[in-house]
Amino acid sequence: MRRVSPALAAYAWAVYAFMYLPIAVLVLFSFNASKFGAAWAGFTTRWYGALFAREDVRGAVINTLTVALTSTLVSTLLGTLLGLGLWRYAFRGRAALTFLLVTPIVIPDVVMGVSLLMFYALVRQVLPFQGGLLTVLLAHVTFQVSYVALVVRSRLAGYGPELEEAARDLGANGFRAFLHVTLPLALPGVLSGALLAFTLSLDDFVVTYFTSGSGFHTLPVLIYTAVKRGVTPDINALSSLLIGFTVILIVAANALSRPGQRNAGRGDGK
What does the pLDDT profile of the chain (270 residues) look like in tens digits? Predict the structure, then answer.
């Protein structure tokens, strides 16, 4: 193996420090005893306890989890079906459909948020409704489906239809072949895509901000609203909890993708 040059290693550490030191400072100051200012006044954990006494934080937590769980269930179902269809069938327009799935991933969040806001304004002329839970749910499902579908398709990319055909040769019908062969193979990708979709919904601010309307706040929107009045340790504590929960979900999603790689290696005789 080639050794990494000291200059490249120093550059890499500088990039990591630039990315993660602000997060470390935020977590550190969530334990600051001083309520205002950046001066360190001692260690305390009372800001974490104070969060649960705030009604607006409890409401934002409920809204965030409701949106994340519901949109993840819907997007996982639709994304799994899309991923299976793209893997199994060759049809006209397949490349165009794949392009449409990639589009919500690559376009900026601001563009997607503004476009959804304009779409809701257009629909509101025919069906009067207010921005809130429903509009945020639909917006989150719009970009979550793409991630789930692409993850499921990538998970099954190394397998061919021969496995299902072998199951049918042994007497299984189409449903049993799917249930006992295809679904277990796709399950790590489905779970990984679901965790990724949940994480994206949990952390989303831009799309939620444009589509939530007034009176409906998720945790990212609540943090943004509070920061405009000044950064306080309780907001740092809330941000730290959100970051920690997100890291746990990302680690779990990565762990789910590893068994498939090991199994693929065994199948190659490695």
Answer: 567 678 888 888 899 899 889 888 888 888 888 777 667 778 888 888 887 778 888 888 889 999 999 999 999 999 999 988 888 877 888 888 888 888 888 888 899 999 999 998 888 888 887 778 899 999 999 999 999 999 998 888 877 777 777 777 777 776 777 777 788 888 888 988 898 899 899 889 899 999 887 778 888 888 888 777 777 777 888 888 888 888 888 788 777 766 444 444 444 444
CB-side neighbour CA atoms (13 Å) of 153: 21
Q: What angle do CA 50, 225, 210 make, to 5 degrees?
A: 135
Q: Which residues pair with 22 in a beta bridge?
A: none
Two structure tokens written together for 71: 């949109």
Q: What are the DSSP calls for 24-92, one per residue? A: HHHHHHTTBS-SSSSS---B--HHHHHHTT-HHHHHHHHHHHHHHHHHHHHHHHHHHHHHHHHHH---T
The angle that helices 183-203 and 233-267 make with each other, rounded to 10 degrees, is: 160
Cα–Cα distance measured from residue 188 to residue 260, given in angstroms and rounded to the nearest whole number: 7
Instruction: For the chain, give every domain's residue range.
Output: 55-260
What CATH number does the domain located at 55-260 have? Answer: 1.10.3720.10
Measured between alpha carbons, how far is 249 from 206 in angstroms, rounded to an integer?
21
Q: Which two tokens stand for residue 243?
A: 């970051």
User: For residues 171 and 96, what is the distance between their CA atoms, to the nearest angstrom?
Assistant: 37
Residues in a beta bridge with 32? 43
